Sequence to fold (480 residues):
Amino acid sequence: MSRFLSRLGPVARPTRRSVLTAGAGGVAAATLVVGAAGPSEPAVSQDALIAQQVRDEFLHGWRGYVAAAWGYDEVRPVSRRRHDFFAPGHTFGLSIVEALDTLYLMGEDAEVTRCCEWIERHLDPVQDASVQVFEAVIRLVGGLLSGHLATGRPALLDRARQLADRLLPAFAHSPTGMPYTHVNLRTGAVRGAVSTLAEIGSNALEFGLLSRLTGDARYYDASLRAYRAVLARRSALGLLGTSLHVESGRWVGCAAAAPNAPVDSFYEYLQVGGSFLGDSRLTDWYRQLTDAIVRRQAVVSGGRLWFRPVDFRTGRPTGGNRAGELGAFYAGLLAKGGDLRRGAAHFDAWTAVLDRYGVLPEVVDFTTLAAVDRSGQLRPEYANSAFDLWRLTGDDHYRSCAYRWFTGMRGRQRVEGGYSVIRDVTAAVPVPEDLTPGYWFAENLKYLWLMFSATPRFDLRAGLLSTEGKVLEGLRRAWV
Ligand code: DMJ
Fold:
């Protein structure tokens, strides 16, 4: 048993907790001291206790991965088996790359070293495997880059570059510049000519940073070319559809579906990319598109702010009142983009869903809040928005909501071997679906940790995270 595993004891629970209870109204000041501290025992702040819980839960999930699936993409925490995320029979050690900067932020330096050594010895970016470009960029390239920023290890940057070089044919072979969905890392063969907006436009952060770090403009140029191709196909209403044929340049999916999947992070990368890369073109596009989305898609239902899909050419509602949990990130994005009022209102809408179910279902009917897809996919978007809104406002209401979300997840999705997606969030006894998605290690508990730990390893003011929760700016190097 590794030193790491042997020193992980049972999950510590505070003996007494003062506030951060469910319900509206915010929480007490962050300096509140709780616990039964004696004269010689230092008092522990409420924040520190929560941060400890958060780290314990992260390490519980991590321990499950390490024990059953180390070196493989994802863990099945109930059956203790492994799951290949990108291609059957191929591993990229996805959860290792996903967890890397979270482990760093939590001070788990021995684990960081172990992860880096695995990546340097075993991560093969030239495998004969056809991978989804979008996922490889946000998860692997982004994870390697943030790992490099955290540790200063040049090999991680080298790996990110090698991998990006193998992904570029998806952009270069496309007559429009919009990437094919898949590329074979060894042969460069591409496939998947119908691509969604999230797949086309969620790479500017990783490729922009890679261009900056390597001095090679090809990566960011590829992102920009793809963006331009999409923006040139805006409707007269200023809206975008859902998916395009990357060879003909024709729209295939004509619903303006933002902020829902499969377009979600396209808009995120314009806003965050604009400020991270100092590129006003991205910022302008974000503003123009967001104005159109707010004008044409915003709808108040039951007193709550939602966004409904419309035909991007006519503005007519396409029918269906569905909102996917993946779209919950949009509350934070609106706020970061300068519309705090709508961001807060949309966050409240998702909080109403959390109030009803305890764990967010994958899809709801926003007119009734009925769960349309009842599965609980261990997704991080609500916590991501809470984190963004808290950073912008300093309002502890958002930390309170995030903590409630955390306790819901801990209560319903924790299994002996880690954390698992569940079949039905409304079931009295949740049935685990036996998977810890890689993104759980990158995102879910990182947001909570950054809200409660006061870690010196992250600059709360200047820090910037990708759609996969990778810290691309604001990591403070406290260790090499
Ligand atoms: C993550 O992989 C990323 O946040 C992505 O943008 C979409 N959502 C998943 C997790 O739900």
Q: What stands out?
A: The radius of gyration is 22 Å. Residues 265, 326, 379-380, 439, 467-468 surround 1-deoxymannojirimycin (CB under 6 Å).
